[in-house]
Amino acid sequence: MKRIFLLIPIAAIVLSACNGGSEAASITDEAIAVKLQPVTTTRYAPVLKYSGAMASTAEARLSFKIGGIISKIYVKEGDHVVKGQLLATLDLTEINAQVQQAAQGVEKVQRDVNRVKNLYSDTVATLEQLQNANTQLQVAEENLRIARFNQQYAQIRATESGIILKKMMNEGELANPGSPVFEFNGTAGNDWVIRFGVSDKDWAVLKKGDKASVEIDAYPNRTFTGIVTEIAQGADIASGTYEIEVKVLPGGARFAAGLFATVRLQPAAEQTVTLVPVEAIAEANNKTGYVYTVNADGKSVTKNLVTIAFLENNKAAIVSGLDSAKEVITEGVGYLTDKSLVKVISRP
Hints:
The chain is α+β, with helices and mostly antiparallel strands. The protein contains four helices and 23 strands.
């Protein structure tokens, strides 16, 4: 019996030693073998891609200066017009009457002035009365000038050669002063642009004069040259983006308003990026991903959220998230979490 009691503690010690050995082995097995690769930095100018519709710099909404009933519309949507061509007129009955009334007012005041002059010559009228009569004549003449001016602009004429994009009113409708009747696109100068909104980060690197390449769906096998001509200095309230205008050189092609185009911008400003092997990127989603780095203790890791600018060959360009990293993990990435322990088995 004594031997039995002596054997039990010994067996317990042996068993305990075996368990301790397995725990130590499991701790060692938890360390994930990884390989590291150095990172490098370079300068590059990002290529920005946006899309928009073609428009003319001579777009206009044509309207009557004064209100009235539309008497005649001479064009329809899609018509090509030339500079000075008559597009629409108002009913001139009321307007002509106003001109006639103003003209008769001038004649009456002129007679009054002549009469006061004669009286002033006979020392019957005073100098003040003569001056007042002359002032009334000047006012009457200005009223006539206003009436004739309104009569002249009781019609709409094309400001330059172009196309009627849209007709917004019809004959017989009451047109208020300044209410658009036509949406007009001038084509005489061949100044075609594409306008689109960009993010604040892209706005910061763009400048007037930056080059652009333009691809238009209507010309699938051709690339046009563009240049940034306007950059908004404030964000659009509705979209929160900044409007950019790119002028497109036709190069002999025929353009029309509304043609869909894709614009690739090449900013002159460069920025610094960090280049890492593509194998180092984990959980990539569009322009973001994660890159693991080994901490100073050589065992723990940090999971870094990075922004990817572009991929080129076997390298990924990182614009943020790896500011101070010298090396990144390239093998064993798929097994890592932010709490993993690692064992570095290879360095370049």
